Amino acid sequence: MTNHPLATAAGCKILAAGGNGIDSAVGALLALCVVEPMMVGIAGGGIAHIRLNTGQHVIVDGLARATATMTEDIYQPTSRDSAPPLETYSRRQDMGPSAVAVPGSLAAWCAMHRRWGKLPFSDVIDPAIHLAERGFIVTPYLENAIHEAAPDLVRDSAISALFLPNDRPCKAGTRLVQGDFAQSLRLIAAEGVNALHGGALGRALATRIATEDANAGWVTNDDLKSLTPRFYPPISGFYRGWEISGPPPPAASGVHILQMLNLMAKHDVASMGFHSAARLHVMAEAMRTAYEDRNRFTGDPDFVDVPTMQLVSPEYATERQTSQRPFTHPSDSSVLRESPNTTHVTLADSEGNVVSATFTINGLFGARFMVPDTGIIPNNYMMNFDPRGGTALSIAPTKRTPTSMAPMMVLRDGQLRWALGLPGGLRIYPSAFQAIVNLIDHEMNLQSAVEAPRIWTDGQQLEFEPLFAPQADELRKMGHDVHQVPQVGGGMNAIEVGEDGCMQGAACWRADGTVAALGGGLARTGVGFWPSIRQKGSR
């Protein structure tokens, strides 16, 4: 399952051709680079959570990172106020070449395929090439994204020529062809990861980043060549007998989902009722506590001390439960900034491999320019760092950007039951947390669990989706500053593996997500109903 039907179809095509779940996930992500160009690209970053058919779980870290020459004072904040977000002069941290971090997406995908894929890489990337060359029909989702970003896109001739023909956003229902990007994908098919990380595409990206004197960036070809994806085990804990597994720091999701679940374990959530203000209150308090701790501790563990085991311990949850206090932004707090513009893939194959993967170019259309003649839209991941010095999120050479990405898996007695994830920036892991509570405490079916209304708070305003509007007054009486929003977080997609091994999928209304499955199998002789009939009628 992906957040676009054509990417879902690409993943299915790869499975039907004999590929496994890793082949399919990589191919679907490459296809999403074509059909969701505002969300994801080969010059972005993200995380994949893989459960191999051996039962081993692996986190693939393809996060973007600072260059070897970046320092904490490269941007000039317009204000040194401690309350986020902090803007920088000329928006140098948000858009243009100076906002680009060293990308990790393509390197991660190629490494995943190299280790665990079955098909030739040229077969895996072929659906994406086809979509770029032949084009696809623009969705209303893409049209709206172009319209929103148009004031910035128009500043760059390469990106505006594609998405703003005749100075107007591409219309839903029209066909979008990306010939330059198709050629880039063909080069990647031939050269693999080296095409971007050391080859012609990397040189083109580095050249473009260095060309604007007033807004030049720092990513060089050497930075691209030196990037290597990282592989490590997930962080896991237990909630009411279920094992919860997710990525460790610099991702916030694994740590703080476990922390929030530990806080919820103190309450009889099921008896409260899904729609009750009492349940929403304790969930909001759990989120507030997690965000307070994230503000204090978040960061790249290569550079800052993240007390992971303390944060996920039940004993710490008990301590925090009895010491909750009004949320404040301490003067030394980190600044949390993340774009909600992300995409997610959840896939499983018949061999027992499962992939949950979240990737992005960070902001809507990333840095909002295109590398000429390549179709590549670079990320603006530098936006996620604190432009001030001396904080956990300050910039340092090769430092990884923090993330809320939550490619999660839930197991019982060592057997996978659910894999899920979603886009949505800072709202990702609280949304994944709510889905897990829906499945375990409220015993919802998978579709209901991912579509159910959500709330979100970082300890300040409490956002809620319209179906929770009847509880607004009671939540106000409990001290919450409530605010209704159309949606919280992005479109979640998930897979359930039943006790009998049968699988089902779900994708929610908050994106263009589509569920697809392949059934049946190759014909076999000598077994089954029809051979017995033939034998009975023979002499």
Structure commentary:
With 539 residues, this protein is of the alpha+beta class. Helices cover 35% and strands 14% of the residues. The strands form four sheets. Strands 6-7-10-11-15-16 form a six-stranded antiparallel beta sheet. Strands 5-2-1-9-8 form a five-stranded antiparallel beta sheet, covered by helices on one side. Strands 12-13-14 form a three-stranded mixed beta sheet. β8 and β9 (354-360) form a beta hairpin. It is globular. 55% of the residues are buried.
Largest sheet entry: 6 strands, antiparallel
Structural class: alpha+beta
CA-based gyration radius? 23 Å
**Unreliable stretches:** 325-334, 529-539
Question: Key terms for this structure?
Answer:
alpha+beta, 6-stranded antiparallel β-sheet, 16 strands, 35% helix, 539 residues, single chain, globular, disordered C terminus, 18 helices, 14% strand
Question: What secondary-structure arrangement, pairings included, does this model have?
Answer:
Blueprint lengths: L4 H12 L4 H15 L9 E7 L5 E6 L42 H12 L4 H14 L1 E2 L2 H14 L3 H7 L11 E2 L2 H13 L8 H11 L10 H6 L3 E3 L2 E5 L2 E5 L6 H12 L4 H4 L4 H21 L10 H4 L2 H8 L21 E6 L5 E7 L47 E5 L2 E7 L6 H13 L5 H6 L3 E2 L4 E4 L7 H6 L3 E4 L8 E5 L5 E5 L21 H9 L2
Parallel strand pairs: 13-14
Antiparallel strand pairs: 1-2, 1-9, 2-5, 3-4, 6-7, 7-10, 8-9, 10-11, 11-15, 12-13, 15-16
